[in-house]
UniProtKB/TrEMBL annotation:
<dbReference type="InterPro" id="IPR044492">
    <property type="entry name" value="P_typ_ATPase_HD_dom"/>
</dbReference>
<dbReference type="InterPro" id="IPR023299">
    <property type="entry name" value="ATPase_P-typ_cyto_dom_N"/>
</dbReference>
<feature type="transmembrane region" description="Helical">
    <location>
        <begin position="213"/>
        <end position="233"/>
    </location>
</feature>
<dbReference type="GO" id="GO:0005886">
    <property type="term" value="C:plasma membrane"/>
</dbReference>
<dbReference type="InterPro" id="IPR018303">
    <property type="entry name" value="ATPase_P-typ_P_site"/>
</dbReference>
<feature type="transmembrane region" description="Helical">
    <location>
        <begin position="792"/>
        <end position="812"/>
    </location>
</feature>
<keyword id="KW-0472">Membrane</keyword>
<keyword id="KW-1278">Translocase</keyword>
<dbReference type="GO" id="GO:0016887">
    <property type="term" value="F:ATP hydrolysis activity"/>
</dbReference>
<dbReference type="Pfam" id="PF00702">
    <property type="entry name" value="Hydrolase"/>
</dbReference>
<protein>
    <submittedName>
        <fullName>Haloacid dehalogenase</fullName>
    </submittedName>
</protein>
<dbReference type="InterPro" id="IPR059000">
    <property type="entry name" value="ATPase_P-type_domA"/>
</dbReference>
<dbReference type="GO" id="GO:0005524">
    <property type="term" value="F:ATP binding"/>
</dbReference>
<feature type="transmembrane region" description="Helical">
    <location>
        <begin position="66"/>
        <end position="84"/>
    </location>
</feature>
<feature type="transmembrane region" description="Helical">
    <location>
        <begin position="760"/>
        <end position="786"/>
    </location>
</feature>
<feature type="transmembrane region" description="Helical">
    <location>
        <begin position="659"/>
        <end position="680"/>
    </location>
</feature>
<keyword id="KW-1133">Transmembrane helix</keyword>
Amino acid sequence: MPEVSEQGLSQAQVRSLTEEGKVNALKEETSRSLGQIIRANVFTLFNGIIVAAMLLVLLTGSWKDAVFGIIIIFNTGIGIGTELKAKLTLDKLSILVSSRSLVRRHGGNIEIDHGQIVLGDLLWVRSGEQIPADSTIVHTWGLELDESMLTGESRTVRKGPGDQVYSGSNAVSGLALVRVDQVGEHGYAAKLAAKARVYKKTTSDLTQGINTILKVMTVVVIPLCLLLIWSQIRAVGGWQTAIGTGLWRQAVVSAVAGVVGMIPEGLVLLTSLNFAIASIRLARENTLVQELESVETLARVDSLNLDKTGTITDGSIVLDDVVLLDGQIDGHIVRQAFYDLSNEANPNGTGQAVLAGLSKEGYQPGPVQGRVPFSSARKWSAIIEDGTLWTMGAPELLLSAFEGDSASVAGRVDGYAKSGSRVLLLARKSLDSVTAADSASQSDEGGFDIEGFMDSPTLFADSQPVALVLCSEHIREDAQPTLAWFRDQGVRCRVISGDNPVTVGAIAAKVGLTGDQIPRIMDARQLPSDLNQLAVVMEDVDVLGRVLPEQKKAIVDALHAKGHVVAMTGDGVNDALALKEADLGIAMGNAAAATKAVAQLVLVDSKFSHLPDVVARGRQVMANMERVASLFLVKTVYSALISLGVVLTAIPFPYLPRHITYIGGLTIGLPAFILALAPNNRRYIPGFLKRVVHFALPGGIAIALSVLLSAWLLPPMLHWNLSKPSDLATLRTTCAIVVFVLGVFVLGRVAMPLKSWRGLLVAFFAAVGVIGIFVPPVANFFALSIPSDRTLRATMIVLVLAAAIYAITWLISRLLGRSRKTATCL
């Protein structure tokens, strides 16, 4: 290590600062503990209603009517498992790499864990190390930092004394002694990680719609349940009779039958299972789903923010072309000079690209008599071979030292830069023509002093510009077709990058970000700070450059303010906050660990082309779950209406909880599971809940009306005495058959078109339902029986009437739907 005058902190100072807690240690906790996760998933309103209903039934001793309660175990287990996985992922989130650091204390250098660094420590930053704490440079020996993971800027930054360096940056080259300014949770990287570590559940349109249904039904269920118990007690002769004869048990079971039917308990479970299966299918395509609900979010996205590096480009540099400026010079000699200039011990990204490109053309190392390696401080390098001094570097720097007319060359450089190229200039000087002005580089014998030049390198005013080398970031092969696909699907794509906006805009144009139109670019330093103004500006911007991490998050917020559903891709720590704020955060497989931790989706092999597959899977989930949600809501509607009819007319409830379990399993639960997994590429259309309700109302009304008419008309027609258990059981069997048959009709409508396997699906479950009545164990468990004699004839008449009611309600619904569309068009 170089000799420095600073002694560093003493042992007593370190001990005192440690006791005060001014150390570089972090408390890495998420916003939700394990206990909170369990409580949030166990003590839900949905679970409370189902548990209360199940306990009531168990108190009556009729355990067969309580089997519906099993659904709680599956729902709660899936919910806890999903959130626990997210918690474990977030707990592991860390921007800083745990490593040993070299600090200067009490006059000597010692190596400690980065968590033992204290405020005010003198810290050595060496090439290849990550900076563990925010600091100020005291001394530097050519320190260059890669801050891309924090800022998004892909170029290295050279630091000088007094400059700030932030935790999370990586030292690319050089050495520095820095003084620690911030430690622990006050550091830049720690603040980013703390914001990213807060748990945020993905917003799902499907889940929100289902939750809305549950909330509405909860408001209805509680008072209706009390009214049902009261009406059923009245139906058996009042409280004294019910308690004295034990008929209160029958009253409770009847009331629970109405309550359970109103809660679409299977829909919650099926939604979770459908998300889980979609996640498994995506995993086979190298797409990791970290939050189940996110598989449908991309189906709703209308705004996709893309990070340039890692999404459109893969971060590597490629050689595009070598452009000769002097027609008199041999192109082969120029290319050999470019190769030898780049062939350093540790070439940077551009040098590696030149070497790789020219190696493919067959170039190999040539004889070099002297070399001045590239330095970001000089911004140029030089070699001497065959009596010629070749200099390669930043065009603006080399041209500033050139005494001739450089305007035409500068114009060409500017044109190439605007097209997205990284441009380097090659200048040539013959060492046979050293002038007096160059005497500092001549030897005593009058020849060129190579060693003197290498010790004190300088640019020569008479070096002649001879060629330009054009490099660019390597564009992913899948970028252009994937962007075209999103354009066709009506998704607005924007590129948000920390790089130069002109360069990013040129790359965006190459991949056809906006189709045939030229992308509209803007420097993020010109963005307004006001959210409303930013929202307006973003509507007219396609490419943003020089974007800071906080601005990326603000951009997402601004798009939300305009009602957009936003997805964000990224790979750097600077993208983490924006990914977390977006409706859907998508990280590349080669992204920083912190970025992958907060993303809902991770493209494991970093292929942008997987996103259309994710969209297709999301559309499948949304379209199919809309079908099955309609099935479940039909049951909710008819259960609520039947319960209301029972309360108003004080009749015994027309079926048992086990009846609805049997019917629901065959006409809703099992078919819905199969339909939810069927192929479906229908594009998502907003209005999920509205369409589901519109479908459910006609079917629910038809079934409720058919059952209530049966319960009202059959007893007097057939002289049934409903106080007799046998007559009540016969009525309930008849009503259960009506519900089952109309349930098959509803299933057939949901499964359309029926010409395919869907028709066989409906026929299969209809047949299973009928056959089950003839199987004694099944019939006994579910309290089913085969109607006979007059009951059979009455049941057939009721079914015909029910079919007519069903047809009429659907016809009215279609007519009303058409009239609404006509009114809207007018």
